[in-house]
Design goal:
about 575 residues, alpha/beta, Rossmann fold, six-stranded mixed beta sheet, 21 helices, 20 strands, globular
């Protein structure tokens, strides 16, 4: 097959600070990607994935070696436009790509600049917006959209170019599960029907299941290259690099260690369930499964009460819309609450009411039994009691050093001297920021480090309620688990109330005591993880999903096995299978 992308001994180094050694983000990468292929790139944060992607359309030029796009050297400035016409990029943060004031104008921007005829532009814009589920927002202003909706618009803008190759750098990180699947289905369809080459950089392991090929980066080097089944069967090697495997493979690997003769190549839910249903332990006593998450007894005292909350944007304008409608629920002291909902369901709008960043159009918010807007002049004190970490942490950072950024909140609470220093250093320690990083500029840090600084800045105020909006989006598996472990420790040790907003059903399932589900701006359901995930059909209809392991449990139950279909962690399903499998015959 013809080659679309090629690198030869590619190296890249970002400019080093004075007195610091040069660090290479890419080292000796040799790679060939064929036209029409679908390639997924995996790797921990800082492994070089994004840097590699940016060399593919000459956003970055090699420090050494060569990059060719359809045979064109990216160092040749005369070929720059032709290269970027062939390779379209979608970045993690959509705000970096949206340039127009109306959705359809933004999607039309690139085709217009390529000289595409007006009639063809209209068709491409409509097709692209339908493909990402945003056609109903064609005349909306992008700045009024949610983060996930903006990302769909950014993806539509690249699709409308109809490039030969699309490179997506964590482009689905902010989408809800069904939205992510819709975008992936669109990309797969473009790949199959139009022969567009796709390079997908992701931390979602299950997005690699249908790829032709998986590349794994580690410390700037290409360390694995092969089909998905081969790559994911190397479980321990991937874990040693801070990566994970799909829940299906994780479950199979655990059961193999329990004595079951199972393949590690059953990637899909149906393949995994089929392999398990046909198998029983071969020998030996089963290894004990993981223990169920222990839930603390919760106080019955409410700390937050949301009563008939409504918020309408753009009142009296053509863009008027209600983001939340008559929402009511209670948050108890010390609770770890999860909030889930499809993109645009009102999650971000809702949580911005909880510390007074937005004022309700109707209804009220009670904190400790008192309406937070009873005395508007005192709303500032509410923000010391209810801390919010935004979806994009870089929007919260503004000081010269990490230390000053973390100190800003407690200093405004009146803390000084040793007390202030203790608050800063303790908050930094809680999220894994080293002492030597405190004097660095926060803008020199990686995305994951910025997120930790933003979180530390809120933790330093020791709020009664901590609200986290997609805190792990864009982090690698090890980074996600490390940050969530920090948050769990904080919750357990300080007994503070935590509200977690996430599109990751696994993250929600493994951490929270209770879930509130939003659909189309109102509360659809609430309950424990087991209660909510037992209603998988309704979740899917609401634009959400259930954890992959729950889908395996459902498939096993359909095959007649005595398995609870509402199981929502790999450990719990492993325990159930060990119980069911005792005394059975070999596979």
């Amino acid at each position: 097959m013809a080659t679309i992308l090629e690198t030869k001994d590619l190296t890249f180094a970002y400019p080093a600070e004075e007195g610091e050694e040069t660090t290479f983000a890419l080292q000796g990468v040799d790679l060939t990607i064929e036209k029409g292929s679908f390639v997924v790139v995996l790797g921990h944060n800082g492994s070089g994935k994004s840097t590699l992607a940016k060399t593919f359309n000459a956003v970055l030029l090699p420090s050494g070696g060569k990059v060719y796009v359809a045979g064109m050297d990216t160092r040749d400035e005369a070929l720059l436009l032709a290269i970027r016409q062939r390779v379209g990029m979608v970045f993690q943060n959509p705000d970096n790509q949206i340039v127009a004031n109306v959705v359809e104008e933004d999607v039309a921007f690139a085709p217009e600049n390529l000289g595409v005829p007006s009639e063809e532009i209209r068709r491409r814009v409509d097709d692209a917006l339908r493909a990402v589920g945003m056609y109903d927002f064609v005349t909306h202003a992008p700045h009024l959209l949610s983060g996930g909706q903006k990302q769909r618009v950014a993806i539509a803008g690249v699709i409308a170019m109809e490039p030969e190759c699309i490179v997506l750098d964590e482009a689905t990180a902010m989408l809800d599960p069904i939205g992510r699947q819709e975008v992936l289905s669109t990309i797969h369809r473009l790949n199959r029907e139009k022969g567009i080459t796709v390079v997908l950089i992701t931390h979602h392991m299950n997005e690699a299941e249908e790829a032709d090929r998986v590349l794994v980066m580690d410390d700037g080097r290409l360390v694995m290259d092969g089909p998905p089944r081969e790559i994911f069967s190397r479980v321990e090697a991937l874990r040693s690099m801070g990566l994970t495997v799909p829940d299906t493979v994780d479950l199979l690997d655990r059961l193999r260690k329990d004595g079951w003769d199972l393949p590690l190549t059953a990637l899909t839910v149906e393949e995994c369930a089929g392999a398990i249903a046909a198998c029983r332990p071969v020998s030996g006593a089963p290894r004990p499964g993981g223990t169920a998450p222990r839930r603390e007894e919760l106080s019955s005292s409410p700390i937050l009460e949301i009563r008939h909350l409504t918020h309408t944007y753009g009142v009296g304008t053509p863009f008027q819309r209600s983001a939340v409608k008559d929402v009511s629920f209670t948050v108890r002291e010390g609770e770890f609450l999860g909030i889930i909902g499809h993109t645009g369901s009102g999650k971000s709008t809702l949580i911005q009411h909880l510390n007074g960043l937005l004022r309700p159009s109707g209804g009220e918010i009670l904190l400790g039994g008192r309406d937070i807007w009873a005395e508007p002049k005192k709303i500032r004190s509410v923000r010391f009691r209810v801390g919010l970490v935004f979806q994009y942490p870089e929007y919260q950072l503004f000081e010269e050093t990490v230390y000053k950024d973390i100190a800003f909140g407690p200093a405004n609470m009146g803390k000084t001297g040793d007390e202030l220093d203790r608050c800063v250093r303790e908050a930094a320690r809680l999220v894994g920021i080293r002492d030597e990083q405190l004097e660095k500029s926060p803008f020199e840090l990686s995305g994951g480090q910025k997120r930790r600084v933003a979180l530390a800045g809120v933790l330093a105020m020791d709020p009664e309620v901590l609200i986290l909006d997609e805190p792990t989006a864009g982090l690698d598996p090890a980074g996600r688990e490390n940050l969530m472990a920090n948050i769990r420790d904080y919750h357990r040790n300080r007994r503070r109330t935590i509200i977690l907003v996430s599109h990751s059903m696994d993250e929600i399932a493994q951490n929270v005591d209770r879930i509130v589900v939003l659909k189309s701006s109102h509360v659809l359901m609430s309950g424990t993880p087991a209660q909510v995930f037992a209603r998988g059909g309704e979740l899917i209809e609401a634009g959400l999903d259930v954890p992959q392991v729950t889908r395996v449990a459902m498939a096993l139950a359909e095959r007649g096995m005595a398995i609870d279909p509402a199981v929502y962690t790999v450990e719990a399903l492993e325990r159930s299978l060990l119980t069911v499998g005792k005394g059975g015959a070999a596979c």
